[in-house]
Design goal:
- With 446 residues, the chain is mainly alpha-helical.
- The chain has a single domain, classed as Growth Hormone, Chain: A (Up-down Bundle).
- It starts with a helix and ends with a helix.
């Protein structure tokens, strides 16, 4: 254990758990709900595809491209979005993000052809750009690094919770509102599911603060205690960080390395998210409602895995090893889903393993990144660039599966390739973790 970790632990012992609970209960429900809605609104096309494909003439390849193209524009606009947030504050900028993506989601319910579907996905990517890395940066302003993994895991858990609940709810909407008011069920699904983001925008603007020092619900001593704890976590290696602004972050090899690492995770996550309903339907399940319920099973497993991972990560501080183990097990699950012949049961078991460990590794990877991006001034740019690089994996995951289906009529080759990349990501996590330890050692020596 390094001297810096000891200084972090000393400050943690000086701050009562009641203060962290107070902060967590005030911030995490709103942040988590925002991410919950984001996951639903960016991935609800997975179940809608089962009916909208015939209505708008959408092929498997076109669907995969549309699912993934969201991330290209999300990636392009993300760094600029986070830099704006750093200037105007999270309260105003996150409110803008929530409101605009809600409006775009509603508009998606009115697309009439493949071209309009692409436009809707592009606009959604632009609207939502910066939300996830913005929330990572935002939480890092409230929680020191020894508390950050647990806070991140409680936010990330919104992803499997959203995926778990979205299937049954979306399936119910598609069946219940079929041809209601001259609209199809999938159209009503988009319209209804876009409204919560707009409502949450108002909640965020009225209830959230930019940082501890701006929070009217904290007393002066609490604000100062949090400021000191977060400052120590971020300034331990300020001499090495050199202020990672966006233009500097682009030239930093470790930022690109962290982006590639996260991208190996996103590759598998979004391949599963966007194609899980179709994979289940291919096993002979034709009822949309049943597909929705079965789609919830892997994400229920992911909820449990993410909670456990957050606690284990904060206690052990071996984030790189835990990320390696999680990515390895996830890769085995992905490969087994197409290589083992066991019907619906084997498919669900394999993809449940993949989903659980892919989601469990995400807070580990983000904690590794936050440890490396030491200074708060540059962290927003570094985090945004890392997530932008990783978003290439988010695009390729669903696109490759769609391409494989169009060209070969099978998921086998692209799914195995995604599994191999995930395994490589596990080894990369070990490498980045080793680099962080070396950086700690040099900082202590100096």
């Amino acid at each position: 254990m390094t001297d810096m970790a000891e200084s972090d632990r000393t400050l943690l012992h000086d701050i009562p758990d009641s203060l962290y609970r107070k902060v967590a209960w005030r911030i995490l429900p709103v942040v988590g709900m925002g991410y919950f809605i984001a996951i639903i609104d960016r991935t609800n096309i997975g179940l809608a595809k089962l009916e909208m494909s015939a209505d708008i003439g959408l092929s498997a390849g076109a669907y995969g491209l549309g699912a993934g193209i969201f991330f290209i524009f999300y990636c392009l606009f993300e760094p600029f979005s986070n830099l704006i947030m750093e200037k105007v504050g999270a309260r105003v900028w996150i409110t803008r993000i929530l409101a605009t993506w809600g409006v775009v989601t509603v508009a998606t319910g009115f697309v009439q052809n493949t071209g309009q579907f692409y436009v809707a996905r592009i606009l959604l990517g632009i609207a939502e750009a910066g939300f996830y890395p913005g929330m990572v940066f935002y939480l890092a302003l409230w929680f020191p690094r020894l508390r950050l993994t647990r806070a991140l895991s409680l936010m990330v858990i919104a992803s499997p919770l959203a995926s778990m609940s979205a299937g049954p709810v979306s399936g119910w909407m598609i069946e219940t509102f079929h041809q209601a008011g001259s609209l199809q069920g999938w159209q009503w699904m988009f319209i209804i599911q876009g409204i919560p983001a707009v409502l949450l925008a108002a909640v965020f603007f009225l209830t959230m603060s930019n940082a501890p020092q701006d929070a009217p619900w904290l007393v002066s001593s609490e604000k100062e205690a949090l400021r000191k704890a977060v400052t120590v976590s971020r300034e331990d290696r300020a001499g090495q960080s050199l202020g990672l602004r966006l233009k500097d972050a682009i030239c930093k090899p470790h930022v690109w390395l962290l982006g590639v690492l996260l991208g190996t995770n996103y590759l598998g996550v979004y391949a599963v998210i966007f194609w899980l309903p179709t994979i289940i339907a291919d096993e002979g399940i034709k009822d949309v409602g049943t597909v929705g319920w079965l789609s919830a099973i892997p994400w229920g497993c992911a909820v449990v895995a993410t909670v456990i991972a957050g606690r284990v990560g904060d206690r052990s501080q071996n984030h790189s090893r835990l990320a390696f183990a999680s990515m390895t097990l996830a890769s085995l699950g992905l490969a087994a889903s197409v290589l083992l012949d066991g019907g619906l049961v084997m498919t669900l078991v394999s993809l449940s393993c993949a989903a659980a460990f892919l989601l469990a590794s995400a807070p580990m990877i983000w904690t590794i990144a936050n440890v490396r991006l030491a200074d708060a001034a540059g962290a927003a740019a570094g985090i945004a660039l890392i997530n932008s690089i990783a978003s290439i994996g988010s695009f390729l995951g669903p696109y490759l599966l769609g391409l494989g289906r169009d060209l070969a009529g099978s998921d086998t080759v692209p799914m195995v390739a995604i599994a191999v990349v995930g395994l490589a990501g596990g080894f990369l996590a070990l490498r980045v973790g080793h680099d962080n330890k070396a950086l700690d050692s040099r900082a202590v020596t100096s």
